[in-house]
């Protein structure tokens, strides 16, 4: 009999892991980061703009690998919830362990580890910085990847929320360890019970306010 387990991500655990990752990598490469001290307002604004673009790229890579591993385009959606500190990409389609594992780790490797190595090789401080922020921003992905690695085959799906997901399996997951993840519901699974209609792109009201203020400051710093 298939069971479902609905998980909620522990934002505190994600934040702590992100802080540890950024601190460790900044410590390792702090000599390459000295340029930040000498930035003027325009350079700082450009840096924040690039971080914003990098966050979007992170989610686009998730989406690409969802698609490449079998998720239909219409079942992929995006969102920004800055009050929760997240950009996100969701699927409301049930996908395999292979599909979610590849999608989770792809941004960490491609625009985290790989670009960090490239940045060190070409001596690009900004590329190093962006890579380190991406590594920290992948804390939730890494928590999920580490837990899923310990599980046998299962199906994975999301329900339109950036910090929750469901696992469908015939195994008992209640006794398994899952750092940074809390089981908030479980029971007998029925076909497509988590299928929900989601907006293709969802941006919260507070996120719109923050983004508008940011782009006003961006324009001001460039033209005044």
Can you tag this structure with a few keywords?
224 residues, alpha+beta, 6 helices
Describe the structure.
This protein is of the alpha+beta class. It has one domain. The protein contains six helices and eight strands. It has a five-stranded antiparallel β-sheet with strand order 4-5-6-1-7. A three-stranded mixed β-sheet has the order 3-2-8. Strand 5 and strand 6 form a beta hairpin. Helix 2 packs antiparallel against helix 3 and helix 3 packs antiparallel against helix 4. The protein starts with a strand and ends with a helix.
Q: What integer is the average pLDDT?
A: 89
**Helix content, binned percent:** 40-55%
How many E-type strands?
A: 8
Strand order in the largest sheet: 4-5-6-1-7
Beta-strand share of residues: 15-25%
C-alpha Rg (nearest Å): 19 Å
Q: Which oligomerization state do the chains in this entry correspond to?
A: single chain
- Unreliable sequence segments: none
Structural class: alpha+beta
Give a short overview.
This protein has helices at residues 11-28, 41-68, 97-122, 125-137, 139-149, 205-223, and strands at residues 3-9, 76-81, 86-91, 95-96, 155-157, 164-169, 181-188, 201-203. With 224 residues, the protein is of the alpha+beta class.
How are the elements arranged and paired?
Blueprint: E1 3-9, H1 11-28, H2 41-68, E2 76-81, E3 86-91, E4 95-96, H3 97-122, H4 125-137, H5 139-149, E5 155-157, E6 164-169, E7 181-188, E8 201-203, H6 205-223
Parallel strand pairs: 2-8
Antiparallel strand pairs: 1-6, 1-7, 2-3, 4-5, 5-6
Helix pairs in contact: 1-4, 2-3, 2-4, 2-6, 3-4, 3-5
């Amino acid at each position: 009999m298939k069971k479902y387990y609905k998980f909620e991500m522990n934002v505190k655990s994600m934040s702590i892991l992100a802080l540890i990752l950024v601190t460790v990598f900044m410590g390792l490469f702090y000599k390459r980061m000295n340029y930040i001290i000498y930035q003027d307002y325009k350079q700082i604004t450009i840096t924040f703009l690039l971080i914003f673009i990098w966050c979007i790229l992170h989610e686009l890579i998730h989406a690409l690998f969802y698609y490449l591993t079998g998720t239909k385009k219409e079942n992929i959606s995006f969102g920004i919830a800055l009050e929760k500190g997240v950009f996100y990409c969701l699927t409301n389609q049930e996908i395999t362990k292979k599909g979610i594992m590849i999608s989770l780790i792809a941004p960490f490797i491609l625009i985290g580890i790989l670009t960090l190595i490239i940045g060190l090789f070409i001596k690009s401080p900004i590329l190093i910085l962006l890579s380190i922020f991406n590594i920290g921003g992948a804390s939730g992905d890494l928590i999920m990847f580490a837990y899923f690695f310990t599980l046998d085959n299962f199906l994975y799906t999301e329900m339109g929320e950036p910090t929750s997901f469901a696992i469908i399996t015939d195994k008992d997951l209640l006794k398994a360890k899952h750092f940074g993840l809390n089981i908030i519901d479980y029971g007998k699974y029925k076909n497509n019970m988590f299928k929900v209609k989601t907006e293709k792109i969802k941006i919260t009201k507070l996120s719109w306010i923050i983004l508008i203020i940011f782009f006003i400051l961006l324009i001001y710093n460039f033209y005044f």
